């Protein structure tokens, strides 16, 4: 259902205002209303897809190591999907003959339709080829159902919430401001705004693949998350103080950012699995509530940061870092969020001290 809503809303967003066609009016009010409705439907569908897919991880296996392996595989193939989109964009924009509004619109429509088609193919493969194993029930033949009040009374819920939200702030804010930072603050070529994200996705993919074969426990989740957070803290500081004449260093930072993103994202979702543990009936509430709070807070952050952002580069001495809202947003906000996550992770106590091995490797 979520995938269907995503496909329909995505088609409406890039294919033109659907309510405008139905009502036969292109007034600003109708256009704004139409696109807002499409955006709401898209976000609703994406939430359904994301929450149900994450919840399946806990339903597939009770082994903590296997759960983290599933999450790392999921993150790795998310990076592959992003890289595929960049390849599609490369070939679509390569055929660009003019910069007219009509041509640009057609290019983005082509990207949207190709993406929807590829996504639909893999959704069909997933639906037909995935069999969910039946887990052993409790000794009395029934499985206890954890209500939402059960989770709100747990300190661990709020600790994992803080870690997950801080991780999403790091990834979402950095992705939003990266291209503007590269163009306006570092004065790099237009191709860099595509190359640098591609490096980040590629290094994140490699890190995710390596993570999925490790033995995992609660303590290792904390350790690897802290490593990723401290790595992002270093990258954030480097972003703030990087001058224009040393812009080539951003390529090294891109590799470190990709590794940091993978370490934080995989372990943060792994901590969600640790929180759910065997209370499988509450997994959707945990993933859904944390995802909802994450989206609200990230939206508030981005609203205030982008409201002060300038579209034009600020005058700057190439030998010294110059302050801008973009530089502050890309360096300081993710860095502080990563530091908060590391501090919270230090005080978390999980119930799986001994790591368990995988019965067979996922990517062998």
Please describe what this structure looks like.
The chain is mainly alpha-helical. Helix content is 73%, strand content 0%. The chain is built from 12 helices and no strands. α1 (2-15) runs antiparallel to α3 and α7 packs parallel to α11 (283-307). The protein is globular, with a radius of gyration of 22 Å. The protein starts with a helix and ends in an 18-residue tail after the last helix. Mean pLDDT is 83; it is low at 137-142. It holds the Pfam family MFS_2. This is Major facilitator superfamily domain-containing protein 12-like isoform X3.
Q: Which oligomeric state applies? A: single chain
Helix/strand-derived category reads mainly alpha
What value does the Rg take, in angstroms?
Answer: 22 Å
**What is the string of SSEs from the N terminus onward?**
HHHHHHHHHHHH
Q: How many individual helices?
A: 12
Count of β-strands: 0
What is the helical fraction, as a range of percent?
Answer: over 70%
Determine the mean pLDDT. 83
Q: Which stretches are poorly predicted, pLDDT < 50 over at least 5 residues? A: 137-142
Largest sheet, in brief, is:
none
Which short descriptors sum up this protein?
364 residues, mainly alpha, MFS_2
Short description, anyone?
The chain has 364 residues and is an all-alpha fold. It is built from twelve helices and no strands. The chain crosses the membrane at residues 68-91, 111-129, 156-182, 194-211, 223-242, 248-272, 284-305, 325-348.
List the topology elements.
Blueprint: H1 2-15, H2 18-23, H3 28-60, H4 64-94, H5 101-129, H6 148-152, H7 155-185, H8 192-211, H9 218-241, H10 250-276, H11 283-307, H12 325-346
Helix pairs in contact: 1-3, 1-5, 3-11, 4-5, 4-8, 4-10, 7-8, 7-10, 7-11, 7-12, 8-10, 9-10, 9-12
Protein name: Major facilitator superfamily domain-containing protein 12-like isoform X3
Organism: Solanum pennellii (Tomato)
Keywords: Membrane, Signal, Transmembrane, Transmembrane helix
